[in-house]
Design a protein that fits this description.
Layout: H1 7-14, H2 18-25, H3 33-45, H4 52-59, E1 64-69, H5 75-90, E2 94-99, H6 104-117, E3 121-124, H7 134-141, E4 146-149, E5 159-163, H8 165-178, E6 184-188, H9 194-209, E7 219-221, H10 226-238, E8 245-248, H11 251-263, E9 273-277, E10 292-295, H12 298-314, E11 324-327, E12 330-333, H13 335-342
């Protein structure tokens, strides 16, 4: 293997001290212009690269941001990663990505490793089954900054970035009611997720304002797996008060619920209308897509989380107040789906 070029090697060739070379590489004004130019020229000639490890040891920083997400194969979380990576890269940080695969045990192991490896900060969206958060608190107690992202657990003193899901569910339900739907079902997420309760509150608030009954038989919780969604949607279809519309936890849940409807020979957005969350690109390939989908701005969520984390790294953590930023959702109506309904 080719030997790595060091500051000491450059210093030997130029007949100066290593500290002079180090300062010259940083264009320190105390080093003469002639010496700085000579050092830079030889460094380029020898293909010298500064040691990140040495620089990090000196600064006490690693230059690494850890990101812990449930599943990057889901387009929503991929968009969050895109936002995180773009801004982090521009600011000179490396992103280390970890997936919990929605398993609390795996998530806990990841955090145990991060606590010992030392990273500059952590961005996390918790697993759907996580109901205890000691592993997150443990890294906070070790003075590692944490930003809670999208799936935000309760009771943790940390920065938070998400989207106002209560408002999103409220506006989606009001929109369905405004189009004449009377029996609006809710295919909600796991009870462990705060976002599920946010959706429920917005849904109920809208129904009450529209003088529509809140029917427990029209509210189902799903574990976000395809078999469970199909099972719960089939239960709704076969119930005594079959819904004429469904508000789904996200676009993936809507897609699986639509499969259940087709299996029962029901026409999508004609016999049962669908509105969902996330507004993912996959909806453009659905035939037909949901009538509307709530845009949660995952890319902006990612960049906002990085902005907060990097600001925390240069501030006095003792005095800084924790921020909570909830992005405003946007109900995006599908024109193709609207044409299907009107036909």
């Amino acid at each position: 293997m080719k030997e790595l070029v060091t500051i000491k090697a450059i210093a030997r060739q130029l007949g100066v001290s290593p500290s002079t070379v180090s300062r010259a590489l940083q264009d320190h004004p105390r080093i003469s212009l002639h010496t700085r130019e000579a050092v830079h020229a030889l460094a380029r000639q020898l293909n010298y690269f500064p040691s990140t490890t040495a620089r990090n040891l000196k600064s006490g920083k690693t230059g690494i941001i850890a990101v812990v997400l449930p599943e990057i194969r889901e387009n929503f979380f991929s968009e969050i990663i895109n936002g995180i990576e773009e801004l982090a890269f521009d600011r000179g940080y490396t992103v280390a990505l970890y997936q919990s695969h929605d398993k609390v045990e795996r998530e806990e192991r990841i955090f145990t490793g991060l606590a010992s490896q030392r990273v500059d900060g952590i961005l996390v969206s918790v697993a759907k089954e996580t109901q205890r958060f000691g592993h997150i608190q443990a890294v906070i107690d070790r003075q590692i900054p944490v930003v809670l992202l999208d799936r935000i657990p309760p009771g943790i003193a940390a920065h938070r970035v998400g989207c106002d899901m209560e408002r999103g569910a409220y506006e989606a339900t009001k929109w369905l009611a405004g189009r004449g739907y009377k029996r609006i079902a809710l295919l909600n997420g796991p009870i462990a997720l705060v976002a599920s309760e946010d959706r429920y509150r917005g849904y109920v608030k809208a129904l009450l304002e529209e003088n529509l009954p809140v029917e427990n038989a029209l509210i189902k919780r799903v574990d976000l797996t395809t078999p469970d969604v199909i099972d719960k949607m089939t239960q709704l279809i076969q119930s005594a008060i079959r819904p004429d519309a469904v508000l789904a936890f996200n676009d993936y849940v809507a897609l699986d619920a639509m499969r259940a409807c087709r299996a029962q020979h029901l026409r999508i957005n004609v016999d049962i209308g669908f509105v969902s969350f996330a507004n993912l690109p996959l909806t453009t390939y659905m035939d037909p897509p949901p009538l509307a989908s709530v845009e949660q701005h995952p890319f902006r969520m990612g960049t906002t989380a990085v902005e907060i984390l990097l600001a925390t790294l240069v501030e006095d953590n003792e005095s800084a107040e924790f921020q909570t930023i909830m992005l405003k959702p946007e109900l995006v109506v599908s024109q193709a789906a609207m044409r299907v309904q009107e036909a």
